[in-house]
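Key result, reporting period 2: structure in, sequence out.
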């Protein structure tokens, strides 16, 4: 019997992947962050298979994946895909007025909108400009 097909073994594997994600997602090494994304994708597919498309756990994993892709890696388009699905799932499991929806989901959504305006200098200093209603550019950070 393949251990990945049994629920207890799968649960332990997901916990192990979760530890890998936690240890790798804030790493300076790009390879480690890539490993966090890979483990996150595997966990998302496992949860989707075992718990269904509207599991609260799935919503949280999707939200975490959006966080890693956007904040740690700057992969905006992929992050938006995960964030959109996370929002759809969490609206069902938690409700649209839940504090998670009003804080973390909204913050990531706002960041995904602002992220293309940010630029990082050679010394990793973050610079940005925001165009206000008068179409004048002003410093953001």
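The corresponding designed sequence is given below.
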């Amino acid at each position: 019997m393949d251990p990945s097909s049994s629920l207890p073994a799968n649960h332990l594997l997901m916990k192990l992947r979760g530890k890998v994600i936690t240890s790798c997602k804030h790493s300076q090494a790009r390879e480690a962050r890539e490993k966090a994304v890979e483990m996150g994708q595997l966990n998302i597919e496992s949860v989707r298979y075992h718990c269904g498309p509207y599991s609260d756990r799935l919503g949280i994993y999707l939200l975490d994946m959006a966080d890693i892709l956007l904040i740690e890696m700057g992969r905006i388009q992929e992050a938006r895909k995960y964030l959109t699905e996370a929002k759809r799932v969490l609206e069902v499991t938690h409700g649209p007025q839940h504090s998670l929806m009003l804080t973390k989901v909204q913050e990531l959504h706002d960041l995904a909108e602002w992220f293309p305006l940010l630029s990082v200098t050679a010394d990793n200093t973050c610079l940005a400009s925001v165009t206000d209603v008068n179409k004048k550019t002003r410093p953001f950070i």
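Confidence is low (pLDDT under 50) at residues 120-141. The first strand starts at residue 118 and ends at 120. This case is discussed further under Risks and Mitigation.
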